[in-house]
Amino acid sequence: MNLYQVKSNPLGIERMAGFLKDNYISIGYPGIGDLDNISPNELKERLTQAYEYEGQELLNGVDELSAFVNEMQDGDYVLVSENDSVYLGDVGDYYYVDASDSVEDGLCHRRGVTWLQCIPRSELNDYVREFLGYPGAIKKFEYPISYAQLERGIEPQTMEKARSPVDDHAHVHVDQQTIDEALAIMKEAMRSDDADRRERAAAAILQYASSRSSSSA
Q1: Which of 112, 115, 21 is nearest to 74 (CA)?
Q2: Do 116 and 55 reside in the same domain of the chain?
């Protein structure tokens, strides 16, 4: 299990509100298509054709996209900062949104996120504050995750500013079809060979069932 930081302003546009509302993160790079299962050489070719990258700029682009698409894994954690607030999330799988593959939108490369907590930057330790100062679009925390001292945020979700739609129907409306599709995905994840993924999927379904019972009581 690893910790990453991702910037909130891909393509130079602040996106934190959308990330929180729709439960995902993105690092930009439109115009290169779906990156699922492509080789490093193919990625280099696409970046060269779309952006005319070469040299170190090309290597940086390959490294950032490889980290976001291939190295980051379902169940890792991500920190995204906005001004004096830092949002902690549990990362899902990579997916591509063709409708967002344009310069105007640019948020086609995505990972789903379950937002766990909003932490004031002043409460973070020196390791994490230095980590968040990295200028690139994405970076992996180079120390053991325990050094980040984020245990209180990884425990049961207490974040007030960025709740999941399933956790709080009063803040964001999600139609029944979307909920049914999400539940089907979680049920499929319960049959995964990964024991940790099975446990998290089961916990999410039980949490949803509990919230439904509470709201109908």
Answers
A1: 112
A2: yes
